[in-house]
Design goal:
The protein is α/β, with parallel strands linked by helices. 26% of the residues lie in helices and 24% in strands. It has one domain (6-222): Dihydrofolate Reductase, subunit A, CATH 3.40.430.10. The chain binds NADP nicotinamide-adenine-dinucleotide phosphate (NAP). The site of NADP nicotinamide-adenine-dinucleotide phosphate (NAP) has 29 residues, from strand 1, strand 2, helix 2, strand 3 and helix 7.
């Protein structure tokens, strides 16, 4: 029996593999049509997970934007937008940030065991703060999310988080969007960091789809035999 959610990784990157610029200004990699596609993918998920650095740097809303899609979810008996999830070792997160302040949904913070009390003091009034282990353990998080009714999890970065899901073999699908420009600055964050990935030159990932969307291209990879599960 499968005791973890279907895990879909979603990321946009430049032609040279960067997911942001090296400056404080957030880099928009996708176009309007692709942002709308991502919104549709979000609407089909039960929860969306991002790393704490993305919470801090991007201050994302992490909501389903389309009113029609929110209404469809409600008609299906769901909350208008998926549960928001983040992971942190230090718990230095702003409770007034948009991740916590927006959306009538649960916000789950999995933190490292040693900072649990601090994290509850800082964030307990805006989120459910949970012990993620020491170090925070993604299989444990996935089992807990599954027990909370999350069947489909979207992981929206950043690279530190994507790297761990991929190297641990915990991803079922990768949706990678390539934007038609270069960042050209090695101080900028990349799609993934160093690691031993299950896919290398001898074991190539299965490309399930390549779709142009305006000036970007969506690459969908099947990373497990659960690929395509709804
Ligand atoms: N283009 C895209 O699609 C996209 C999407 C998302 C993000 N981004 C970009 O990615 C950048 C951020 O990526 P990033 O790699 O620096 O950070 P990240 O993956 O967003 O977050 C890393 C942080 O998450 C926490 N964390 C991750 N794994 C953990 C573990 N096993 N145990 C405990 N805590 C853990 C730690 O938080 P603490 O530091 O709090 O301990 C860590 O510093 C930003 O520039 C953002 O704009 C781009």
């Amino acid at each position: 029996m499968v005791d973890r959610p279907y895990v879909l990784l979603s990321c946009g990157m430049s032609l040279d593999g960067y997911v942001d610029s090296a400056t404080d200004t957030r880099l928009l990699l996708s176009n309007a049509a692709d942002f709308d596609r991502v919104d549709a993918v979000r609407a089909e998920c039960d929860a969306i997970l991002i790393g704490a650095e993305t919470v801090r740097q991007d201050n994302p809303r992490l909501l389903v934007r389309s009113a029609d899609r929110r209404a469809e979810r409600v008609a299906r008996g769901l909350l208008p937008t998926p549960v928001k999830v983040t992971v942190t070792a230090r718990a230095r997160l702003d409770p007034c940030g948009r991740f916590f302040a927006l959306g009538e949904v649960d916000k789950l913070v999995y933190c490292a065991s040693p900072v649990l009390d601090d994290a509850r003091a800082r964030l307990g009034h805006v989120a459910t703060v949970l012990d993620g282990g020491e170090p925070v353990d993604f299989p444990r998080i996935l089992t807990d999310l599954h027990a909370r009714g999350v069947s489909r999890l979207m992981v929206e970065g950043g690279g530190t988080v994507h790297t761990q899901f991929l190297t641990a073999g915990l991803a079922d699908e990768l949706q990678l969007v390539v934007a038609p420009f270069f960042v050209g600055d090695s101080r900028a964050p990349r799609f993934v960091g160093d690691g031993r990935f299950p896919w290398d030159a001898q074991n190539r990932a299965a490309l399930a789809e390549a779709r142009p969307i305006g000036d970007v291209v969506l690459l969908r990879y099947a990373l497990s035999d659960r690929f395509g599960e709804q």
